[in-house]
Amino acid sequence: MDTKLAAVYDVVYSEYPGLPEIPQILFWIPGNINPESSKVLDIGAGMGAFSIPLAFSGFQVESVDISSVAIEYIRSTAYKHNLKITARKADILDEGVVGDCEIIICSFVCHHLLDKDARSLFQEMKQHTLSGGINIIAVHTQEGDFFKSELVPGKFYPRSGELFELYADWDVIMCTEMSSHSGYFEDGSPCFNLNSYLLAQKPTAL
Questions:
Q1: Are 44 and 108 in contact (CB under 8 A)?
Q2: Helices in the chain by DSSP H: which ranges?
Q3: Dihedral, CA of residue 188, residue 194, residue 196 and residue 197, to nearest 10
Q4: Which DSSP state fits 47?
């Protein structure tokens, strides 16, 4: 586990204001995936932006993150609202994807991974997604300040449009890109990134 990165996110999440805003991409799921019989794996769950709303919708969720602060927040929220969430502090690179699910999510995690590790993770996600299930992925692309200022070479920043190509063998329900404000640099200047978002469904024939 990257203990330095975990410590950074512990600080970030300690200053978090509360329940995160529900990602718009989630609104497709309730009418298309039956929550009563479906499992969700949320990789790099953070403060539960995906995990908590899906659990409120009736899904059984497994949340994984390297931050103790994030995991404790998800656990306490699950306990308070009697949600079906199992939250674990873990690094997905240490243990890989274990078990099969209807929904696997990986949102803004892969820029912390080497390119080869991120691509391997996508293959694992595909393999462990049940037929008719979905993957949700959000990544920073090469068109942004994070990529331009990256100090560690070889991290995963796909080209614009590449995320769609990586899921060309699935039914891509949504794939969009948009620029967003991603905080500030140490000198106070704003940081912007072109982000890619994908929701894809595994064909029943696979």
A1: yes
A2: 3-14, 51-56, 68-81, 92-95, 115-127, 145-149, 162-166
A3: 60
A4: T
- CA torsion through residues 129, 25, 177, 13, sign: negative
Note whether 158 and 126 are within 8 A (CB). no
Residue 133 has pLDDT above 90, yes or no: yes
State the average pLDDT over residues 141-147: 87
Q: Which among 128, 84, 93, 80 is positioned nearest to 5, based on CA atoms?
A: 93
Residues 19 and 77 sit within 8 Å (Cβ to Cβ): yes
Average pLDDT value for residue range 65-77: 96
Helices 3-14 and 68-81, axial angle in degrees (round to 10): 50
Confidence bin at 206 (pLDDT 50/70/90): low
